[in-house]
TrEMBL record:
Taxonomy of the source species: Bacteria, Pseudomonadati, Thermodesulfobacteriota, Dissulfuribacteria, Dissulfuribacterales
InterPro entries per record: FAD-bd_OxRdtase, FAD/NAD-bd_sf, FAD/NAD-binding_dom, FAD/NAD-linked_Rdtase_dimer_sf, Pyr_nucl-diS_OxRdtase_dimer, Rhodanese-like_dom, Rhodanese-like_dom_sf
Superkingdom: Bacteria
Protein name: Pyridine nucleotide-disulfide oxidoreductase
Gene Ontology MF: a single term: oxidoreductase activity
One Pfam family, short name: Rhodanese
Organism per entry: Dissulfuribacter thermophilus
Cofactor annotation: FAD
Signal peptide extent: none
Length: 572
């Protein structure tokens, strides 16, 4: 059997190498237009930052062999053709026309089975100046090497990153943390990580990055990139400001490289992704496709989606190889899982955010759990935040977002829910989910279980909350709610500065005194119950309701959330 694989970064090498193990007699050819292949593209920001010292580490195996032509030929038994561009596919004759990038020499490669793994390309903003020297997209390892070379030569004092997604944020951290570059990030949407995490969690991340030296401006995009007489970048212009820059990185997302498939008459989506079935076959049963160039199924919405991730590409590549070898195997789809680090914190998501869930037609609400990531008495405990998104009418769990100290804590909870989402779990599945417990690792009632319990109270009508954004708008005077008052349930000493500064909005009755001082609670106002995490507030809400109070709302996540947002009205 002649197998030709086009693309040698993630899905392509995975499919080719597993096919070789399953089909020892097959003739397998792996081609790519680049000379650097099989590298961890998601590791590029860490190479730029210096966490990964040598680019070869991104191309090396766990046993320190560089994945180059020689490795794939001698260790894996593949025919490797780098610097070879696939120009067209002749499905009738079952050949691929290829061209040597350097010599221009063309050749036809016959195939019995073809695998397309052409990946994605970065979006280039349609604005003046994108072709100036010093303006980069993160499209290949070559670009990363060029960026690091500029920095190491001392040519970069100021940088602008365009795009507040994961890659943009990681690159902003990389430039600031090790190199001390004056770095600014701009994001067109109102928040960073739009449609991935809720606004309050995005603001928590933004505040943390700003505290570590990254300037972030949301709600404004780049209008123009301006250069000097030599064609080198000088500044980025937005509707609100001009930002000086020696380096500009465009991190405005990616789109699939599906042109080769489309020109061959294969079915593609409206945005250019190759359509495949669960066996990763295209509309031609002898041609498979995998990785960033294909569309897949969202297991929560049941709709087609695009998931350009190295982890997804590798799993799809394995499915391709199985089917090439006659082993029935399927890739059913994704729930959409993500995690990243930013200085000292981790933030992650799986499934749908509240905003996306509502756009998809779900009757969605979110529960916010804020508590220690391990037993509160353990000396290294730190706050962790879990945001569980559920459908109110069916109690189906739709997604989870997490924020906490850098480490594996957030990852563990995200992964636990990610493994359930495709099976349509209910809130009760999260509340009762069995998780390993020991004080150095978690609470006896884990923060994830707590998020489920809060969601159950919320959808059952036992808990009524005020939205964090609405509360902040009231506190800073943007929203008028003259009939509101905050009831601070913390210790009197903790509450005192707030009562003093916001005497018209804030009153204090400690949690353990509310029952004896119920008469002091005003009945003619809407009471916003406030504590550090929301737990005491919920308990007091239940008690006051039993006493005939009706206008009661809990601030979810309590002041543990607010102090990490640090709004203008915050008292340190």
């Amino acid at each position: 059997m002649k197998i030709v694989v086009i693309g040698a970064v993630a899905a392509g090498p995975k499919a080719a190498c597993r096919a070789r193990r399953l089909l020892p007699d097959a003739e397998i050819t792996l081609i790519d237009q680049d000379d650097l292949i099989s590298y961890g593209g998601c590791g590029i920001p860490y190479y730029v930052s210096g966490d990964v010292s040598d680019e070869k580490e991104l191309r090396s195996t766990s046993f320190h062999m560089v994945r180059d032509n020689r490795f794939f030929e001698e260790a894996k038994g593949l025919n490797v053709r780098t610097l070879t561009r696939a120009i067209s596919i002749n499905r009738k004759n079952k050949t691929v026309l290829v061209e040597n990038v350097k010599s221009g020499e063309k050749e036809e490669l016959p195939y019995d089975k073809l695998v397309i793994a052409t990946g994605s390309r970065p979006n280039v903003l349609p604005i003046p100046g994108v072709d100036l020297k010093g303006v980069f997209t993160i499209s290949s390892l070559h670009k990363a090497i060029a960026i690091k070379e500029m920095i190491s030569k001392g040519e970069v004092e100021r940088a602008v990153v365009i795009g507040g997604g994961a890659i943009g944020l990681e690159m902003a951290e990389a430039l600031t943390d090790l190199w001390g570059i004056d770095t600014t990030l701009i994001e067109f949407m109102p928040q960073i990580l739009p449609n991935i995490v809720p606004p309050y969690m995005a603001k928590m991340l933004q505040t943390h990055m700003e505290e570590n030296g990254v300037k972030i401006f949301t709600g404004e995009g780049a209008q123009e990139i301006v250069g000097d007489d030599s064609g080198r970048v000088q500044k980025v212009i937005t509707p609100k400001r001009e930002l000086k820059a020696d380096l500009v990185i465009m991190a405005a997302g990616v789109r699939p490289r599906g042109e080769l498939a489309k020109e061959a008459g294969l079915q593609c989506s409206s945005y250019g992704a190759i359509c495949v079935n669960q066996r990763m076959q295209t509309s031609d049963p002898d041609i498979y496709a995998a990785g960033d160039c294909v569309e897949t199924l969202n297991l929560i919405t049941g709709k087609k989606t695009y998931a350009p991730l190295g982890s997804v590409a590798n799993r799809q590549g394995r499915v391709v190889a199985d089917n090439l070898a006659g082993i029935p195997s399927t890739f059913d789809g994704v729930v959409g899982s993500f995690i990243m680090k930013a200085f000292d914190v981790a933030i992650g998501s799986t499934g749908l955010s509240l905003e996306v869930a509502r756009k998809e037609g779900f009757d969605a609400v979110q529960s916010i759990a804020a508590m220690a990531d391990r037993a509160h008495f353990f000396p290294t405990q730190a706050m962790m935040f879990m945001n569980l998104v559920v459908d109110k009418s069916t109690k189906r769990v739709l997604g989870l977002q997490g924020f906490g100290k850098m480490g594996d804590g957030v990852l563990a909870r995200i992964n636990a829910v990610a493994g359930l989402l495709g099976k349509r779990p209910l809130i009760s599945d999260i509340s009762t989910l069995e998780l390993a417990y020991a004080p150095p690792f978690s609470n006896a009632v884990d923060v994830l279980n707590t998020a489920g319990n809060i969601a159950d109270n919320l959808v059952s009508g036992r808990l009524e909350i005020v939205e964090i954004e609405e509360f902040c708008s009231w506190m800073d005077g943007k929203t008028e709610h003259s009939d509101w008052i905050a009831l601070d349930l913390r210790h009197t000493k903790e509450a005192a500065p707030w009562v003093e500064r916001y005497s018209d909005k804030w009153m204090s009755i400690p949690y353990d005194q509310v029952r004896s001082r119920t008469a002091e609670v005003p009945r003619d106002k809407t009471i916003i119950l406030i504590c550090n995490a929301g737990t005491r507030s919920y308990e007091i809400q239940r008690y006051l309701r039993s006493q005939g109070f009706e206008r009661l709302m809990v601030l979810p996540g309590g002041l543990n959330v607010i102090r990490r947002i640090k709004p203008s009205w915050w008292i340190a």
